């Protein structure tokens, strides 16, 4: 039993909102759920929230409204979710394309970029038929193109960059948790309630 009751409290949580960014297949939703449990925060998935509100799957939105229509919906939902407190949010892979979304993320929480190599992303998504941008003849080439376009945007908005590699979700969540603790301790935030 630790002498300092605050040491347990500060070790168990990370202050504020936590936003996960990265390409499709990087593990944002799966890791986000684990992190929300670890940090006792509410989990949201931006894409799932859009589907819940519209009553249709994202591919249908793309078919009817195109990517521009979907991105407008995504920005509105992202703005609303980012205003909440103590959440873990898995963003859509393309959320960072709009500058206003990057600004909203940077101003409202800690942003973790789950960085995965295009080859790994292809392995994880090659049988997935629910991703509109991957409905193409050469998924691998499309993922490489998206990585080239978006990697600088993810890096721009990220507080931390974590390479996902081939590790399990559990060990990835543990690595992120450790990196976040180190970040907040070095920034002097970890024990602000106990000072």
Helix content: 55-70%
Number of strands: 5
The largest sheet, given as strand count, sense and whether it forms a barrel, is: 5 strands, parallel
Low-confidence spans: pLDDT under 50, at least 5 residues? Answer: 1-12, 190-195
Order of helices and strands: HEHEHHEHEHHEH
Number of domains: 1
The mean pLDDT is 84
Please identify the structural class as seen in this structure.
alpha/beta
Morphology call: globular
- CATH fold topology: Rossmann fold
Rounded to an integer, what's the Rg over CA atoms? 17 Å
How many H/I helical runs? 8
Widest sheet: strand ordering: 2-3-1-4-5
CATH homologous superfamily caption: P-loop containing nucleotide triphosphate hydrolases
User: What is the top-level CATH class?
Assistant: Alpha Beta
Q: For the terminal residues, how far apart are their CA atoms?
A: 20 Å
Please indicate the percent range of residues in DSSP E strands (runs of 2 or more).
5-15%
CATH architecture verdict: 3-Layer(aba) Sandwich
């Amino acid at each position: 039993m630790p002498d300092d009751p605050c040491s347990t409290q500060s070790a168990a949580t990370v202050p504020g909102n936590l936003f996960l960014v990265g390409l499709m297949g990087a593990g944002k939703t799966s890791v986000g759920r684990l992190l929300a449990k670890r940090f006792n925060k509410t989990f949201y998935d931006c894409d799932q929230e859009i589907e819940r509100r519209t009553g249709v799957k994202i591919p249908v939105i793309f078919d009817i409204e195109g990517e521009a229509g979907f991105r407008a919906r995504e920005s509105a939902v992202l703005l609303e979710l980012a205003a909440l407190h103590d959440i873990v949010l898995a963003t859509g892979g393309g959320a960072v394309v709009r500058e206003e979304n990057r600004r909203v993320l940077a101003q409202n929480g800690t942003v973790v970029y789950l960085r995965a190599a295009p080859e790994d992303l292809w392995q994880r998504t090659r049988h997935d038929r629910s991703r509109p941008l991957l409905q193409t003849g050469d998924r691998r080439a499309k993922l490489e193109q998206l990585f080239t376009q978006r990697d600088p945007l993810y890096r721009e908005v990220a507080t931390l960059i974590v390479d996902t590699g081939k590790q399990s979700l559990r060990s990835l969540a543990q690595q992120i948790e450790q990196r976040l603790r180190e970040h907040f301790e070095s920034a002097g935030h970890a024990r602000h309630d106990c000072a």
